[in-house]
Amino acid sequence: MIKSIKRWSGLFLFPTLIAFLISFLIPLVIGIYLSFCDFRSVSDAEFVGIKNYILSFTENGEFLNSLWFTVKCAVCSVIAVNLIALLLALLLTRGIKGTNFFRTVFFMPNLIGGIVLGYIWQLIINGVLYTKGMAITSDPKYGFIGLVVLMNWQMIGYMMIIYIAGIQNISTEISEAARVDGAGPVKTLFNIIIPQVMPSITICLFLTITNSFKLFDQNLALTAGAPGKKTQMIALDIYNTFYGKIGFEGVGQAKAVIFSVIVAVIALLQLYFTRRKEVEN
């Protein structure tokens, strides 16, 4: 039976392999090659070496400004989302009446599209700021706060569900033993709950980090980079470079490659360090 499965496994894996090559690997290789070219289309690409990468860092400083703004938004969002999501998960696993209702309510923002969320929060924030004669695009700090609040509102519910699943998988015997030994809520949290839910923490950190760095449609709808591109995150900067500047397609592609490498390195480092902390059940 096992030999038969091994014999035919390649046949069943073949469609998935073809889909992977067509949708991911081949476009990735072509994209990396085009980052070293001047081009209008794939057919007229002209190799120019690292010129596009040099322009990425020297062109008006927009790329570095967008990268720094993205890092600030991502750090604030990752910390806030995971702390609040874990707190809500702890509260909603204590048998509180109406727990299922609250779980549904907190999760619902994750079902709304990014463009819609952006416009919703633009209306809310502008509604507050208009009373003071300002708008979200009047000052970069309003755009920054708006993006962080938006990301928290969208992602907290989803991360909360993952944390709830991790908390519910903790053995009741461990919790009862800690209670018998006199461990208080704080000691139980840091010595029992957090070590046991490290797999959930690993997943949530990975998702929040990658989603925060890749934020695009929410940024486009909320501020579109205004004022003066000071609230432009890196994904929006790549889009504006590629589609908004004639002759800069190669530069936009180079920025995309740099961005992909940065996100991949950060995500892999996070996975490496958090997995070392996971407790084997």
- SS field, number of helical segments: 12
Pattern of helices and strands:
HEEHHHHHHHHHHH
Give the percentage of residues in beta strands: under 5%
- Structural domains: how many: 2
Q: How much helical structure, as a percent, in the residues?
A: over 70%
Any idea what the CATH architecture of the largest domain is? Orthogonal Bundle
Q: Give the CATH class of the largest domain.
A: Mainly Alpha
Strand arrangement across the biggest beta sheet: 1-2
Distance between the termini: 32 Å
Write the layout of secondary structure elements.
Blueprint: H1 2-34, E1 37-38, E2 46-47, H2 51-58, H3 62-91, H4 99-107, H5 114-129, H6 140-168, H7 172-180, H8 185-196, H9 198-213, H10 217-222, H11 234-244, H12 249-275
Antiparallel strand pairs: 1-2
Helix pairs in contact: 2-12, 3-6, 3-9, 4-6, 5-6, 6-9, 9-12, 11-12
